[in-house]
Amino acid sequence: MEITDLPAHQLTKLIRSREISAEEVLDASLARIAAIDGRAGMLTGGNLEPEEIQKIHAFITPTPQRARAQAQEVDRKLASGEDPGPLAGIPFTVKDIFCVHGTPSTAGSRILANFVAPYTATPAARMEAAGGVMLGKVNLDEFTYGSSNESSAFQPSPRNPWDTGRVPGGSSGGSAAAVAAGESALSLGTDTAGSIRQPAAFCGVVGLKPTYGRVSRYGLIAFGSSLDCPGPLARTVTDAALALKVIAGPDRHDATAANVLVSDYATQLEEGVRGMRIGLSPDYFRVTYFDGESGQLHQEPISPEIESAVLSVAGYLAELGADIVEGVPMPHTRYGIPVYFVISRVEASSNLHRYDGVKYGYRTPDPVQELSEMYRKTRDQGFGLQPKLRILMGMYVSAAQYSEQYYARALRVRTLIRQDFEQAFDPLGPHRLAALLTPTTPTTAFPMGAVYGDSVLMQYADQLTVPANHAGVPGLSIPAGFDTQGLPIGAQLLGPDFSEATLLRIGRTYEIATESHDWRKLRPAILQ
Amino acid sequence: MPPEKIPQEITPELFNHLVNLAALDLSPEESEYIRRELNNQLKAIHDLEAIPLDPETPITSHGVPYSSEITPAIRPDEWLPYSHPEEIISQAPVIEDGYIVVPDIPHTELE
Which domains occur in chain A, in start order? Predict the structure, then answer.
């Protein structure tokens, strides 16, 4: 196995025992990136040459010099007997929605293309302080508004390492692609409706959306402030646990970072699932989607291959002593997307008012007569279609005359979605679940261009992930095999507030149960 | 009280009003695409009207309830100087002598 394909927890042991240096690991990562990543995303991305279609294009801004200095510091500390931290020498990437001091922090948008962050987001700062080696900033949908990465202003947008004709998912698509292709062992992503879990599922990696408030949002370029959750993407459950322990916890810069003890997630990973009640809900094995042409809602079962993969996970967990509880009602699941269409747009529109060409970011070079003309031209030229769409929807549904029908109603339905979870997890209720096991996505990765442009259909890619954001509960997506096209399938575990340790433990139990399976040995097409 | 009839679509007039409020300036092509997508999204949103909703149902503004045990204590209101203010000011597109420069702000001289 090549260095770049080793999981983070093994790599850091080798580095700490000085069997390999952090700089050697960095060199291997940079060589992998040079071999398969291709051109980084640029505003003037232009057309792809045929050979570029075979590349990943995960990055917007590589930071090899920063990485070199960090790797050397880890090696220096080890040589002098100092502790370099729990992520000693681990190469990681950061979704370009986090501010990192001295790096362009673009949100995948023209309006922030020239913004160089004057400070570092707490999760990224904690990764670096723990000895992590930051390889660079990776691509995303513009302001995270998408599920495919195609909306980034920085083109080429990332491609799926298992099939470069397909999307990596989104919005943390650069993160998922980089981790799946062994460019970095870990990546920091964010999840507002599924933006860690959906690309993790599409790229065959582990993605953890922590409980809202588990990880500080300080330094995160805001989208939906009541929904946004930073979290790790990794190739193994153990690595996700390692990263969560580093980034979680209270933060004086974020009043919503909850004052809850951070567990040592890694120590409980292999304690098994005996006696755990794990639920299956029929409401997560069908999708309701809106057909723009007919104006009708359709309900369909999810892909049989995905259903059978998730039921197979349940089967392994049952063999290992879990109680599988079938028929758990989650009746408001189908309303997750329409509620999201309202709440996230209101929050996005509020958060996007700050981009005005005055304080930072892009300002129109066109001559203007007065201030409001400058605002208009700046925002028109700086924002892509998705931010404009979200601003306008947010303003409409929160306008005084409509907000009771739309915004207030959506916030009440959000209560019902939360109650579905509270009832499923209630220790005195009929189900008493430790976790709910569901598919992560209704489909596997779709072809580039197949959905982009249809903002409604694109949003429905998040149907099985978004309820956890409304409810605030944690969600873990783990690889659960492949479909007949050779595309990864993700299974999702959802649990009560701050139950990350339990979800990781269930995920690790399944990982151990299947570690000798042939599908675990498959490598992304880009590496073959 | 039954909810007021919700408009079925965002008309071009309403759309232009929203664009103006949002300080945007859209091309005809962008306007056509965005208005169509807004109306499609609104059709999906109208699915929420199918839910029988008890008027007593509270709103949820955050999923996780912030009990006093997990809510961080409010910080003392202390002034902490930022170490490199010039790094922040230098991000402004146009600056002069440490001030941010903007185009003319329409105004009326008070008598």
Answer: 3-261 (3.90.1300.10), 337-406 (no CATH)
Kindly give, in sequence order, each residue whose CB lies less than 8 Å from that of residue A298, ignoring residues fewer than 6 positions away.
A288, A289, A290, A291
| pLDDT at site B8 | 52
Based on the number of CB atoms within 10 Å of its own CB, is A513 exposed (0-12), middle (13-18) or buried (19 or more)?
middle
Burial of A225 (0-12, 13-18, 19+ CB in 10 A): middle
Per the CB < 8 A criterion, the answer to whether A382 and A362 are in contact is: yes
Cβ–Cβ below 8 Å for B23 and A372: yes
Average pLDDT over residues A457-465: 89
pLDDT the model gives residue A292: 65
- Residue B110 has a pLDDT of 86
Q: B4: which chain A residues are within 8 Å (Cβ-Cβ)? A: 405
More confident of the two residues A357 and B75: A357
What are phi and psi for residue A492, nearest 5 degrees?
-115, 140
- The per-residue pLDDT for A459 is 85
Q: Looking at this protein, which amino acid is placed at residue A37?
A: D
Q: Which single residue is written with the structure tokens 């600056």? A: B95
pTM for the structure as a whole: 0.96
B24 contacts A380? CB cut-off 8 A: yes
For B59, nearest residue in chain A (alpha carbons): A412
Q: Does B52 touch chain A (CB under 8 A)?
A: no
Residues of A taking part in catalysis: 95, 171, 195
Low-confidence ranges of chain B (pLDDT < 70): 1-8
Q: Which residue of A has its CA nearest to B52?
A: A413
Residue in chain A lying closest to B87 (CA): A118
Q: Where are the alpha helices (DSSP H) in A158-269?
A: 173-180, 197-203, 237-247
Q: What is the ipTM of this complex?
A: 0.90
List the single range of A204-218, A396-410, A487-501 with lowest mean pLDDT: A396-410
Helices (H), A383-448: 385-398, 409-425
Q: How far apart are CA A98 and CA A114, in angstroms?
A: 15
Q: How confident is the model at residue A291 (pLDDT cuts 50, 70, 90)?
A: confident
pLDDT in tens, A315-332: 999 999 999 999 999 999
C-beta separation of A154 from A108 below 8 A: yes
Q: Is B97 on the interface with A (CB under 8 A)?
A: no
Give yes or no for B80 touching A (CB within 8 A).
Answer: no
Residues A397 and A342: their CA atoms lie apart, in Å, by: 7
Give the containing element (helix H, strand E) for A61: strand A59-62
What is the DSSP code (8-state) at residue B57?
P
Q: Which of B10, B17, B45, B70 should we substitute to test contact with A (largest number of A Cβ atoms within 10 Å)? A: B45
- Looking at beta carbons, which residues of chain A come within 8 Å of B73? 259
- Tell me which chain B residue has its CA closest to the CA of residue A367: B103
Measured in angstroms, the CA of B111 and the nearest CA of chain A are apart by 22
pLDDT tens figures, A70-113: 999 999 999 999 999 999 999 999 999 999 999 999 999 999 99
| Residue A370 DSSP symbol | S
Q: What is the pLDDT of residue A185?
A: 98
| HEC readout, A302-316 | CCHHHHHHHHHHHHH
Mutate one of A392, A398, A459, A462 to test the B interface: name it (highest B CB count within 10 A): A392
Give the pLDDT confidence score for residue A289 in this predicted structure.
Answer: 80
Which chain A residues are closer than 8 Å to B100 by Cβ? 358-359
